[in-house]
Amino acid sequence: MQVFVTGGTGTVGSAVVPELLAAGHTVLALARSDKSAQALTDAGATVLRGQLRDLDVLRAGAARSDGVISLAFGNDYATEEALVRSMAEETAALAALGAELAGSNRPLVAVSGTPWVPGRVATEDDPIPTEGPVGERAKAVTALLALASRGVRSATVRLPRTVHVDGRGGFAGLLTEQARATGTVGYPGDGTQRWPAVHTRDAAVLFRLVLESAPAGSSWHAVADEGDAVRDIAAVIGRRLGLPVGQVPVENFGPFGPIFAMDQPASSVRTRQVLGWRPSHPGLLADLENLQP
């Protein structure tokens, strides 16, 4: 099928595009810059120029395609205001894509996050919370799943807080970036909280499987590691960078601080059983060994 992809040059998208092409699909990809357009062309995709806020462009891309994978999201997380703007932009984009696909039974696959469930490992059956710093993203995804009643094969891939490749990406990547800037590998809380993780290339395979066969209104977990303790993650980063490791205030992590401090393990048992997804790439702690000082 021809697949319209947004966010095709991001951490996840840069793996999803070649995964789709290798499986025999064609890709029409949104590009907001010359650099992105060149990268997508080099990968073998057809480029559609525009930005996530260009709703007419999004509708045109969806109209030309047999299915959509929506990965794009703003990359400014420095302030709560910037995060709110990015969530509003994503909400409008998903609504536009859904409206274009209504009644067609074509797939629309979007990104969500694994939920936090106090006291236990989260599963695919758990709802995502619509409160908190990223609650608006959850509301947008809930509305997208409801499009199943309007003839859209809507589905979400719930990504863990760390999606990594070569030691980069996700919450672990943010720890690394802050460590390089401050000279200390700092983590919030006591460090016993657990973060689930997945390698980018394993996540890309799941996006393809969901696009190809997942039923309407379904959610799936791209979780390879159910939960690595944050202090273990920080210890590897500190050793690789040659920096001290220790607890720092939650406020150091801006709007993501409360999320960083949560114990949030998640499983992917049903995803593996139903879709036959089998992660095969290195886990987070092993992948962090690729960090360069």
TrEMBL record:
It comes from the Bacteria. Pfam families: Epimerase (PF01370). Residues 3-215 form the NAD-dependent epimerase/dehydratase domain. InterPro entries: Epimerase_deHydtase, NAD(P)-bd_dom_sf, NAD(P)-dependent_oxidoreduct. GO terms for molecular function: aldehyde dehydrogenase (NAD+) activity. One of its GO terms (cellular component) is cytoplasm. This is 3-beta hydroxysteroid dehydrogenase. It comes from Actinocatenispora sera.
